[in-house]
Write a structure and sequence with these properties.
Distance between the termini of chain A: 56 Å
Strand content of chain B: 15-25%
Mean pLDDT of chain B: 83
Shape of chain A: globular
Mean pLDDT of chain A: 81
Distance between the termini of chain B: 71 Å
Structural class of chain A: alpha+beta
CATH class of the largest domain in chain A: Alpha Beta
Helix content of chain B: 25-40%
Strand order of the largest sheet of chain A: 2-1-5-3-4
Structural class of chain B: alpha+beta
Order of helices and strands of chain A: EEHEEEHHHEEHHHH
CATH architecture of the largest domain in chain A: 2-Layer Sandwich
Number of strands of chain B: 16
Largest sheet of chain B: 5 strands, antiparallel
Number of strands of chain A: 7
Number of domains of chain A: 2
Number of helices of chain A: 8
Radius of gyration of chain B: 22 Å
CATH topology of the largest domain in chain A: Alpha-Beta Plaits
Shape of chain B: globular
Oligomer: heterodimer
Low-confidence stretches of chain B: 1-15
Number of domains of chain B: 3
Helix content of chain A: 25-40%
């Protein structure tokens, strides 16, 4: 067992836990976008930053990937942490403003402006769907392609993957596309947006902005019956 | 994202047939090689000039790696291409130093002359134009690399001659300008059979005919018999920088190497010179090291 100090409170967790798990365990929630229980930590969204150490040696780390250490001093909501977190959220808003998840988080953190060039991406490259597909669904149908500003997630060669079983797990975990993919039925977390298109998503050109890697789409198949 | 460019990709689905056996051979050479994916892909690329989709599928099936991993690596590195490339690869440096020295104008000129944009291949499949971000030769900028040959301080005016030279091949030698070039006649050090081929001339002299073996493929190679000339022709294209084995066409024995090239370390191939002496040439394509030992 390892004892560390989070926001002044001692907390004892099992060896191998991350700082994020320890903080959640004692009841200090840390916002995340790319973390999910049951998937390997990835550290992509940087929302879970916390401050570790004391004095001039204190530094910001992503708590989802930082292992809990004996005697570690952690602050989850210092002014430095909150400032960094707000900046991350502002940048996320700049790239992906239509995501309900990001909007809610930004609102909760008191962000009232967005100073960067506005873009309308449909992906924040958090890699949740990639890990979901590989680790929980054991499929490995989608992955990262290219690099730098061209980095994207999708199937190899952009064609239907033989590994894909149309489980929809990728869309279920996606923090960027929930709003659009649930369409008019928020309780059904499966894509339904394309069902309203005329002509339907057979014409892929019109369909390309849908966050849907499935071919054919589950919703379309249901509609056919 | 996702399914956006299916149509764009279908055009690039390889029409060229690939030989699964070739891929399996490459994979076999890398068996048990942990993390050898990049070297496998590099070998496939040097065989085909690009990475055919079918080849990647075979690699996935044989190594147990998932297709997304392989595709991710293949698209991550600029040196890998999923599209067939032309016979000649032109890389123009657009790094900061080259940029301020006028590389964009050079690229413009290349694009105009070839009628393609950077990253594309001409319709006749002769040239592929690519840009890259630094070759580390900033003092020499703008730098252009054509088929592994580096050209420094390239100006717009030099582009056309360079392209013409590339079509001709950079390995050809201009004769008549060098008094050190003279004809020799050679024979096999094993069987003593003459290697001269009177039926086919290079540089106006009978050529030296040997058999070369590369990647389990055999074919003829005709070298110029002029000492100092690098002109040659071969049955199949030997990729730049590859080391090939030289065999005697009569006795089928390998011309035995007794020393390594002082420049590149590849084996030096000896041939007996009629009248006494041994001439040695480097077995690596593109290396011009050679020597003549007169007895």
């Amino acid at each position: 067992m390892i004892t560390l100090k989070i926001n002044g409170l001692d907390v004892t967790v099992e060896k191998g836990s991350t700082v994020l798990e320890a903080a959640n365990f004692i009841g200090f929630p840390i916002p995340t976008l790319c973390h999910m229980d049951g998937l390997t930590p990835y550290g992509a969204c940087r929302l879970c930053v916390v401050e570790i150490g004391e004095g001039p040696g204190a530094k910001l780390v992503s708590s989802c990937t930082y292992p809990a250490e004996e005697g570690l001093v952690v602050r989850t909501a210092s002014s430095r942490v909150l400032e960094a977190r707000r900046m991350v959220l502002e940048l996320l808003l700049a790239s992906c403003p239509q995501s309900k998840t990001i909007q809610d988080l930004a609102s909760a953190h008191g962000i009232r402006r967005q100073r960067f060039r506005q873009e309308y991406e449909d992906c924040i490259l958090c890699g949740l769907c990639v890990r979901m597909c590989a680790e929980q669904m054991m499929a490995g149908a989608i992955g990262f392609r290219n690099r730098g500003e061209n980095r994207s997630i999708g199937t190899p060669f952009d064609i239907k993957s033989e590994e894909c079983r149309l489980c929809g797990g990728c869309m279920y975990v996606c923090p960027a596309c929930q709003l659009r993919c649930t369409y008019t039925e928020p309780e059904k977390a499966v894509c339904g947006g394309c069902a309203n298109l005329t002509p339907p998503c057979v014409e892929k050109e019109q369909f390309k902005d849908m966050m849907c890697y499935m071919n054919p789409c589950v919703a379309c198949e249901i509609k056919k019956d | 994202m996702g399914q956006g460019n299916i149509a764009a990709h279908e055009e690039n689905v390889d029409v060229e047939e690939i030989e699964p056996g070739d891929i399996l051979k490459i994979l076999k050479a890398h068996q048990g090689d942990v993390g050898g994916l990049i070297s496998i892909l590099q070998e496939i690329q040097s065989t085909y000039g690009y990475l055919p989709a079918e080849a990647l599928r075979i690699v996935g099936r044989q190594t147990g790696r998932s297709m997304v991993d392989i595709y991710g690596v293949a698209t991550f590195y600029r040196s890998f291409s999923l599209k067939p490339r032309g016979r000649h690869l032109i890389c123009a440096c657009l790094g900061t130093a080259c940029h301020v020295r006028g590389a964009p104008r050079v690229v413009d000129e290349l694009e105009q002359q070839l009628g393609i944009k950077a990253g594309q291949t001409t319709e006749d499949k002769e040239f592929t134009l690519e840009t890259l971000n630094c070759l580390g030769a900033c003092a020499l900028g703008p730098v252009v690399v054509i088929d592994g040959h580096y050209f420094s301080k390239v100006t717009r005016a030099r582009i056309r001659p360079l392209l013409d030279k590339a079509l001709e091949g950079f390995d050809t030698t201009e004769l008549g300008k060098d008094s050190r070039i003279f004809p020799i006649e050679v024979s096999c050090p094993h069987c003593g059979h003459s290697l001269m081929d009177d039926g086919s001339t290079i540089d106006g002299h009978p050529s030296i005919k040997v058999t070369i073996s590369m990647d389990h493929r055999d074919g003829w190679l005709r070298l110029s018999s002029l000492y100092g000339s690098y002109n040659f022709s071969s049955e199949f294209e030997v990729p730049h920088n590859t080391v090939v084995r030289f065999l005697c066409p009569s006795c089928r024995e390998e011309l035995p190497s007794t020393s390594d090239c002082s420049t590149c370390g590849a084996p030096m191939v000896p041939m007996l010179v009629n009248g006494g002496g041994i001439v040695k040439v480097c077995s690596r394509r593109g290396c011009r090291n050679h020597m003549l030992d007169l007895i």
